[in-house]
Amino acid sequence: PLNPEPLAPFSDIVFLGEAEAGLAGLLAFLRDHRELPRSERLRTLAEAGLPGVYVPAHHDPAAGFRAERVWARTPWDPARTRFLVPDDPFGGAYLLEIGRGCPHACRFCAAGYATRPFRPLPPEVLLPWVGFGAERAGKVGFVAAAVSDHPGFAELARAALEAGAGFSVSSFRAENLSAEAADLLARGGLKTLTVALEAGSPRLRALLGKRITEEDLLRAARLAGEAGIPNLRIYAMVGLPTETDGDVDALADAAERARAALGRGQVTVSAAPFVPKPHTPLQWEPAPAEALVRARIRRLQARCGRVRGVRAVAETPKWSRLQALWSRGGRAVADLLEQGVGSGDWRAVLRSPLARRELDEPRDPDAPLPWDFLGGVP
């Protein structure tokens, strides 16, 4: 976890990092000490100092405890679908992990900071599983934070096609899309190309560390249309630091121009409220007010709704506020989580003085943060 503290009061043990790097050692320790009473076993585990193991009842970050997140060495055995289930949310695809981390450093995104470095698995590790998934499911879903940055993506895609299967990706960086990649995606069965613009204006994208330009977006839309991919989805955020109405209007204008470049089909702007995340340069920012986010969403939807073939959809601001609370809270917010689960009244949780302090006040850059005790994070 990026920040285990909100769940620490409910947790006997928290494993920090990637399971391949030490979970087997933890399980072996628990097995070897299974004759001990639960409380004694946890105390003994805390004293053992196993890599990646955090025992909240016995480890106190306020008293100087430090924990190191642990990482798998490349290559590891890729995560993949173990059971194929009819009518699952992924269209019955065989999901295959092709890498971890991200080579980019977008200032809002934990993947570019907390899971560095970018670690693509080599094709020789993945190709047998591509063939297996093609045979079992007829469709392979490539999973990673940065699928289009995998140096062997084209090889993996061709392998799926040559095995008679389709394939899918969750998103593709617009600046990485070539005519060849667009053709492969179309042949794989992709009906909607998803790219992340994140913000409408160059100024705001620069603040976010997002290198994509509007020219990259329009080029990707044109290549998608020429390849026969009918639809385009644009990921974006609202409620960003320094955001203005003009930035929202610029996002709608970019979507309109992308629709013209696409040539047909639907352009959907999928807007998510900004959530400050631990270990990122924007971790000190307050969460945007719900009223502000709702106003931005209404403005975006109204602007997009004027253009044929363009629409905007958005996540519910309430849930984003709760996500921000759990994302950056300390152990004290565990009481709010318990309150919300017990009563179902999450509005009351958000109205509490503690939640308002956690969400609405910017963090002091010199003040300690709940996750400062976590090492192994760049």
Characterization of the model:
It is built from 14 helices and 13 strands. With 378 residues, the chain is of the alpha/beta class. Strand 10, helix 9 and strand 11 form a beta-alpha-beta unit. The longest helix has 18 residues, at 245-262. The model has no long low-confidence stretch (mean pLDDT 96).
Key phrases:
378 residues, alpha/beta, TIM Barrel, 2 domains, four-stranded parallel sheet, three-stranded parallel sheet, 14 helices, globular
Could you give a short account of the major beta sheet? Answer: 4 strands, parallel
CATH-defined topology of the largest domain: TIM Barrel
- The number of helical runs is 14
CATH superfamily of the largest domain, called what?
Answer: Aldolase class I
What is the CA-CA span between the terminal residues? 15 Å
Q: Give the strand line-up of the largest sheet.
A: 9-10-11-12
The percent range for helix content is 25-40%
Q: What is the chain-wise order of helices and strands?
A: EHHEEEEHEHEHEHEHHEHEHEHHHHE
Total domains, how many? 2
How many β-strand stretches? 13
